[in-house]
Design a protein that fits this description.
Helices cover 28% and strands 26% of the residues. It is an alpha+beta fold. Among the domains are: 116-149; 153-296, Sandwich (Immunoglobulin-like), CATH 2.60.40.10. The longest helix has 53 residues, at 97-149. It is rod-shaped and about 195 Å long. The N and C termini lie far apart (165 Å).
Length: 297
């Protein structure tokens, strides 16, 4: 009897559950089979138990995002949509007076920059010309200073003395500059030849040894040469002109090597000067510069 009552209760409960499922179905899920009522009872009886962890779905790395899952449900991403691209409408750009003003202002800036560059180049050219002029003026002043202060050594006077069968030429040199002349060296030579000169006068070799001396401003020195007077020869004519010549070498205060060459004559085309005879019977005549052979730096 008890067994019958229990069976009756189970039957009534099953019917109630079937009615409830029929009245309120779950969306997207079919109605439960009455045959599974017993299973529901078991689920209800175990609702207080802890739910088990739902297994995670593992996606295949080779599967594309559009691949359907095996759950049997249809994804809304599977639907294909057609997208149509229409022609873009024309866009017109309207420039305001501010835009044109910016263009004009930029153009003016370019012109001003070009003008500044042109003026700068002109200024640089003017500065270069001024610097060149200053350099030239500096060189001129330096050269002028050297010319004013350097030593000038040249012949001051020369004479020829004839007497007692001896001819003696004396050449006086003087420093006309404002600074001393250093390492003064000189040589002198004589020659009798026709005038104008048609042959080259002999000169000493480059290694000819000469004494050196210092000649201060205003100082002078005498260089002379003498020889025997040839017999039956009248000196001082065009055919027998006496040539006295030589060269002076020295250094000025600025360390530059200077020279002075001279060629003096007794005779030539001009008449003999008035000779002077002293009380000892020695004839003294002056020497004059030849038309050529005189040079200095």
């Amino acid at each position: 009897m008890c067994y019958g009552v229990s069976s009756m209760k189970i039957l009534i409960l099953t019917v109630l559950l079937a009615v409830m499922q029929a009245l309120s179905p779950i969306p997207g899920k079919a109605a439960d089979n009455p045959a599974g009522a017993g299973q529901d009872v078991k689920d209800n009886s175990s609702q207080n138990q802890k739910p088990t962890a739902e297994p995670m779905a593992v996606r295949n790395p080779n599967e594309s995002p559009s691949t359907k899952r095996d759950t049997g449900q249809q994804s809304h991403n599977d639907t294909e949509h057609t997208v149509g691209i229409s022609k873009l409408p024309p866009v017109s750009v309207t420039r305001s007076w501010l835009d044109w003003g910016l263009w004009v202002f930029s153009g003016l800036l370019v012109l001003v920059g070009a003008l500044q560059i042109w003026l700068l180049l002109g200024t640089l050219r003017a500065i270069k010309r001024q610097a060149d002029n200053m350099d030239r003026q500096s060189d001129i002043l330096k050269d002028t200073g050297e010319r004013q202060l350097r030593a000038y050594v040249s012949v001051s006077r020369a004479q020829l003395k004839i007497g007692k069968g001896i001819i003696r030429a004396q050449v006086h040199i003087k420093n006309y500059g404002q600074t001393p002349a250093y390492e003064v060296r000189q040589w002198i030579h004589k020659w009798v030849e026709s005038h104008p000169l048609s042959v080259a006068l002999p000169e000493p070799s480059e290694d000819f040894k000469m004494a050196t001396a210092i000649l201060g401003p205003g100082d002078h020195n005498v260089m002379d040469v003498s020889w025997q007077m040839p017999p039956n020869l009248v000196l001082g004519t065009r055919a027998s002109t006496v040539y006295i010549y030589g060269k002076i070498l020295y250094k000025d205060a600025f360390g530059r090597t200077r020279y002075a060459k001279y060629r003096l004559i007794h005779g030539g085309s001009e008449p003999l000067p008035n000779p002077v005879v002293d009380d000892k019977g020695i004839l003294t005549v002056g020497l004059k510069s030849d038309a050529e052979g005189n040079d200095a730096d």
